[in-house]
């Protein structure tokens, strides 16, 4: 292991991301559980998983490269709860992370993009996980009971969204891009 380590030091250098990945892989091989991942590796894994979660899972499952489990990445990528309207947590995070007040004037030029899409009716969607859970139509008896209960309470027929719109900040001369509402 010592010979391999010395050889890897000469091949990878001392202050490179490849060297960091090599060190993290060595440490992960020694510690099966409770691995403390370097923040740069966490960011790289989040970027990789956001491109393709199935590719990320394939790399993890094969064991070719040891990567943090999705449960480790989740708190880093889901720091703000999704809400309707403008997400002020995201706006604060963008200003803080991108240091907008310290950017050169050219890089502070942004545009606001929006995209709207039609939502399929009759599905139950988890706001927290972003996944479709099931269908709202549970059969005639369950529907009739839910309708009866709603009428007894005096509730009106709930309005169902048919479209969803996303607002996004996009840097014209910078790498800033983030959803804000």
From TrEMBL:
The gene is LOC110990613. Residues 83-181 form the Transposable element P transposase-like RNase H domain. The lineage of its organism: Eukaryota, Metazoa, Echinodermata, Eleutherozoa, Asterozoa. It comes from the Eukaryota. This is Uncharacterized protein LOC110990613. InterPro entries: TNP-like_RNaseH_N.
